[in-house]
Amino acid sequence: MHKSFDLYFVSSNSHKYKEAKSILNSFGIKLGFFKLSLDEIQSTSLKEIAEKKAYDAFSKCKKPIIIEDDGLFIDSLNGFPGPYSSYVFKTIGNKGILNLLTTKRKAKFVSIITYCDKKILKSFDAKLDGTVSKSQNGMGWGYDPIFIPKNYKKTFAEMKNKNDLSHRFKSLKKFSNWYLHKMESNDR
């Protein structure tokens, strides 16, 4: 059994925090929360956006933190909304995305977890292939009601086990492997 370590998730999105907390708790990592709205640079690189946000978050919180940035990349829309997913969701929502699509619905979710403390800035990314559904299904947040993971028939919003297979789970798993190793090395 792993020791618990202090770490904070920084976001204005409490849904993301709840998912991250549940996932990291399963790996033995204790996670606190700083609800904070961070400025987001305009970039086509999720990693660049995430690293800037993590650096800014650490500068404000002065504690080891992680942030998560993600995007829905739709092939037939040349990767749109991609790094602009949050803005697009607030502007046109799932209905707007569905209205933009005709027949080609292949997409992927990409998640970047970025850790920052006084010495380290490190990112962990993961993707999950899937498709955009033809209608909204289920009661989820964000793009969950329209994203169907590859080899599944239900949207994220309809799944009870979303946290066991999502893009966020995959990036948090990569992060947790690194973080637990780092903490164990520091204990020696």
UniProtKB/TrEMBL annotation:
SUPFAM superfamilies in the cross-refs? ITPase-like (SSF52972)
Keywords from UniProt, A to Z, are: Hydrolase
Q: Which domain of life is it from?
A: Archaea
Claim: Isomerase is one of the keywords in the record = no
Say yes or no: keyword Hydrolase present: yes
Which BP terms in the Gene Ontology apply to this protein?
nucleoside triphosphate catabolic process
Select a single GO molecular function from the record's annotations and give it.
Answer: nucleoside triphosphate diphosphatase activity
EC number(s) reported in the record: 3.6.1.9
Gene Ontology CC terms: cytoplasm
Q: Which NCBIfam families match?
A: RdgB/HAM1 family non-canonical purine NTP pyrophosphatase (TIGR00042)
Indicate the family of this protein: Belongs to the HAM1 NTPase family.
This chain belongs to the protein called: Non-canonical purine NTP pyrophosphatase
